[in-house]
Specification:
- The chain has 22 helices and 13 strands.
- By secondary structure, it is an alpha+beta fold.
- Among the domains are: about 30 residues, no CATH class; about 190 residues, Poly(a)-polymerase, middle domain; about 60 residues.
- The strands form 4 sheets. It has a 5-stranded mixed β-sheet with strand order 5-6-9-8-7, sandwiched between helices. Strands 2-3-1-4 form a 4-stranded mixed β-sheet, sandwiched between helices.
- Bound molecules: cytidine-5'-triphosphate and magnesium ion.
- The site of cytidine-5'-triphosphate has 16 residues, from helix 11 and helix 13.
- Its cofactor is Mg(2+); Mn(2+).
- Pfam families: MTPAP-like_central (PF22600), PAP_assoc (PF03828).
- One of its GO terms (molecular function) is poly(A) RNA polymerase activity.
- This is Poly(A) RNA polymerase, mitochondrial-like.
C-alpha cells in the first residue's frame, strides 16, 4: 500500500490511485501477492518480480482457439483436469485467436499436458514439448458443458492502441503532466504482454532443458526493465542457472562436462544449434536469422503465435543485470517511467531513433540520458541517486559477477536506501520534461561524458561525438556508434523541443498542444494539417479517399479527391499527394513483404494450419 501512497504523493493526483485499485486483479498481482509480514516493504525487488513471472509461466499454457466464444468450452474441458486461475484472450497479426490459461499449480499443468493429443495421422509431423497448443473440435457427440460463472480476464488483450483515439485523449487532457502520465498508462507493456513474453522464454527453456543441465532462458531489455511499450521486441538470454546448492562441494556425484574453449567460436556453434532448433523444434518460430559474427552472437526470430520479435543471445548476464538496474531506477520514483516513455516516443517521432541499427542513438542510451538528467542536483533537489551510491551500499547478498568477470554488484533492495537518497524534488512531469530538453540543449557534448555512475558530467576520455558511460563496464561507451551528424541532430532536436513545448504552453490550446506536437511523426502531422476539412476539426481519413472496391487509386484521382475534400491550395495538395503516394507505397511494400514471409513456411506448416482451421473450437 505504501507504494500506492507514494504514487499519489509524487504526482499529486488521485487518478493513478483510482486506476490501480480499479485495474484487473491480475495486473495487481505484484501488489496483492505481498505477504502480511512485508508491511514495511515499500519496494519489490527485481528478483521477486521475475521469479513470480517465471513461476506464472511454468503454470500457464497458450491455446489456439476458434474465437473468443470458445472460452466456455475450453474452461469446462480444462477444469476437468486441473484448477484454473484465469484465462486471457488475444489475437495475433493473422487474426487467429488464442487463450492464455494460468493454472493453480505446476502439477495441474503437468496433468493437463499428460492428457494432450497429437496429429497421429500426419507422419511427417513430430509432436513437440511446448506450452503452445490448439483446441480440437469435439469429435462425435458433444459433451454438455455447464456454463461457468467465470469470465475472460482480458478480451483482445494484445490489441494495438488506436493512435487517433490516443491523440484525441491526449488533446483533452487538462495539463501536460496529465498527458505524459496518460501516454505512459496507455502505451506501456500490459500484464498480458509480459505474460506472453515469459511464455515465449519458457517454451525455449522446455526444449533446451533436454539438452543442457541448469539452463534458463530469461527475458531482459525493455520487456522487463519497466520501459517497454506494447509490441516491444523481446530480448532473451540463454544462460547457465547454476545455483549455490548445485555448486556445493560436498556433493560427490558431479556431471561430466563438455568445456567451451577457444574464445567466441564455441558460442557461435551453440548459437548455430539454437538456430536449427528454432527452425525445427520451436512451434510458432519463423523468420530465423543468425547473426553470429557480432560481438554478442544472436539469433533473431519472429514468434507468430504471440506477434513478438525476439533476439536470443547466449550467456549475456550483464544485460540482465543492466535491465535490473534500469528497473530499480524506474521503481524508485513514479515519474521516472512516464518521463522516459515520453522521451523515447519523442525521439522516435523526430527520427532520432530508428528500428534498424545504425549510426544513431537507440532507446537504451536514451534511457540512461533520462536517468542521468534525473540525478542532477538542481535547486529543486535531485530525483535519482548516483550508481556509485548504490554500489557503496551493496551487501554480500548483492554480489553478482557476470561473464568475463563483469562486476554487477550493487544494492538490490531499495527498501534499504535512505529516503534522502531519492525523490528530493517535487517537480511535476511537465516541468521535468521541459528541464530535460533544456538540460541537454546546453550540455557540453564536446568535452563531457554522461555517467550515471557519478551522477554528474565527467571528462570525455576520447573524441567520440557522444559519450555515455556503461555503468557496469565503465571503460565502454554505450553510444560509440553515434555519428557526429546524429549527435548534432540530437542537440538541434532538444532545442526545438524545448522551444516548441514552451511556446505551446502560452495562448490557446491548439491541435499540437502540449506533448502532441512532440510525439506525432512530422510527416503525419503535416499531412493532418493539410487534410482538415475547411475550418472543421474533422480530418479527411484515408477511408474517405478510397472506395472499398478501389484498390489502386491513380495519382490524378487522389489529387482531385483531395482538392474536393479539403479545398486546399494547389501547392499544398501537390505536397500532400506526394506524401500520400509515399505512404501508400510503403504500406504496399510492407504488406507484400508480410505476405511473402507468411507463405515462406513449408507446405507441412500450411497443411497443419488448414487442418486446424477446420477442426478448431
Ligand atoms: N544493453 C547493455 N549494453 C548495451 C546495450 C544494451 O547492457 N550497450 C542491455 C540493456 O539491458 C538493454 C538490453 O541490453 O536494455 C537490450 O538492448 P536493446 O534491445 O537495445 O534496448 P531495450 O532497452 O530493450 O529497448 P528497445 O525497446 O528499443 O528494444
Ligand atoms: Mg530490446
Amino acid at each position: 500500500m505504501s507504494l500506492l501512497i507514494q504514487t499519489i504523493r509524487n504526482t499529486g493526483k488521485s487518478h493513478s490511485f483510482q486506476k490501480l485499485i480499479q485495474a484487473p486483479l491480475s495486473s495487481c498481482t505484484c501488489l496483492l501477492r505481498r505477504k502480511s509480514s512485508d508491511v514495511s516493504k515499500k519496494f519489490l525487488s527485481f528478483d521477486e518480480v521475475v521469479s513470480q513471472r517465471r513461476d506464472e509461466a511454468r503454470r500457464s499454457l497458450v491455446v489456439q482457439v476458434n474465437s473468443e466464444s470458445s472460452f466456455n468450452e475450453l474452461y469446462g474441458y480444462c477444469s476437468n483436469y486441473a484448477s484454473i486461475n484465469g484465462i486471457h484472450h488475444y489475437k495475433n497479426a493473422g487474426g487467429e485467436h488464442f487463450m492464455l490459461i494460468e493454472f493453480s499449480t505446476e502439477d495441474n499443468l503437468k496433468e493437463i499436458l499428460r492428457s494432450c493429443g497429437s496429429h497421429q495421422k500426419d507422419n511427417d509431423i513430430m509432436a513437440l514439448q511446448s506450452p503452445f497448443l490448439w483446441f480440437r473440435a469435439c469429435s462425435g457427440k458433444k459433451e454438455k458443458i455447464a456454463p461457468t460463472s467465470n469470465t475472460l480476464i482480458t478480451k483482445n488483450g494484445n490489441a494495438a492502441i488506436d493512435e487517433n483515439l490516443l491523440c484525441e485523449e491526449l488533446g483533452s487532457c487538462s495539463t501536460v503532466s496529465d498527458q505524459i502520465q496518460l501516454l505512459y498508462d496507455k502505451t506501456m507493456l500490459n500484464d498480458l504482454g509480459i505474460r506472453l513474453r515469459y511464455m515465449v522464454a519458457r517454451q525455449l527453456e522446455i526444449v533446451f532443458e533436454s539438452l543442457y543441465a541448469n539452463i534458463a532462458v530469461r527475458p531482459f531489455g525493455s520487456s522487463v526493465n519497466g520501459f517497454g511499450k506494447m509490441g516491444c521486441d523481446l530480448d532473451l538470454v540463454l544462460s547457465n542457472n547454476l545455483t549455490d546448492e548445485m555448486s556445493d562441494p560436498t556433493k560427490r556425484l558431479v556431471y561430466q562436462e563438455k568445456k567451451s574453449e577457444g574464445g567466441r567460436g564455441p558460442w557461435q556453434r551453440h548459437m548455430e544449434l539454437v538456430g536449427e532448433l528454432l527452425e525445427l523444434r520451436i512451434v510458432g518460430a519463423t523468420r530465423v536469422q543468425r547473426i553470429l559474427h557480432a560481438r554478442v552472437p544472436i539469433v533473431k526470430y519472429a514468434h507468430e503465435f504471440t506477434n513478438i520479435d525476439c533476439d536470443l543471445c547466449y550467456n549475456n548476464m550483464s544485460g540482465v543485470h543492466m535491465s535490473e538496474l534500469l528497473w530499480m531506477y524506474g521503481s524508485l520514483d513514479p515519474r521516472v517511467r512516464p518521463l522516459t516513455f515520453l522521451v523515447r516516443r519523442w525521439a522516435a517521432a523526430v527520427g532520432l531513433t530508428n528500428q534498424h541499427p545504425g549510426r544513431w542513438i537507440t532507446n537504451f542510451p536514451l534511457t540512461l540520458m533520462v536517468l542521468f538528467f534525473l540525478q542532477q542536483k538542481t535547486n529543486d533537489g535531485f530525483i535519482l541517486p548516483s550508481f556509485k551510491n548504490l554500489v557503496n551500499r551493496a551487501g554480500k547478498e548483492d554480489i553478482r559477477i557476470a561473464e568475463e568477470n563483469v562486476n554487477c554488484t550493487f544494492l538490490r533492495d531499495m527498501n534499504k536506501l535512505p529516503l534522502e537518497c531519492y525523490s528530493q524534488n517535487q517537480s511535476n512531469l511537465e516541468t521535468l520534461l521541459l528541464q530535460f530538453f533544456e538540460y541537454y540543449a546546453q550540455f557540453d557534448f564536446q568535452e563531457k561524458a554522461i555517467s550515471i555512475i557519478e551522477g554528474h558530467p565527467v571528462r570525455k576520455p576520447n573524441a567520440l561525438p557522444l559519450y555515455i558511460v556503461n555503468p557496469l563496464e565503465p571503460a565502454l561507451n554505450v553510444s560509440r556508434n553515434v555519428s557526429f551528424e546524429e549527435c548534432e541532430r540530437f542537440k538541434l532536436e532538444v532545442r526545438n523541443a524545448a522551444w516548441q513545448l514552451e511556446a505551446g504552453l502560452e495562448g490557446e490550446k491548439s491541435d499540437d498542444w502540449g506533448v502532441l506536437g512532440l510525439i506525432e511523426k512530422r510527416a503525419s502531422r503535416n499531412l493532418k494539417k493539410l487534410l482538415r476539412v475547411g475550418n472543421s476539426h474533422r480530418l479527411v481519413s484515408v477511408k474517405d479517399l478510397f472506395n472499398d472496391n478501389e484498390e489502386n487509386i491513380s495519382e490524378e484521382g487522389l489529387r482531385s479527391k483531395l482538392q474536393r475534400l479539403t479545398q486546399t491550395r494547389h501547392e499544398n495538395v501537390e505536397k500532400s499527394v506526394k506524401e500520400m503516394k509515399q505512404m501508400i507505397a510503403t504500406q504496399n511494400a510492407t504488406e507484400k513483404k508480410d505476405q511473402k514471409i507468411k507463405f515462406k513456411n513449408s507446405q507441412v506448416a500450411n497443411e497443419v494450419f488448414r487442418i486446424r482451421r477446420n477442426k478448431m473450437v
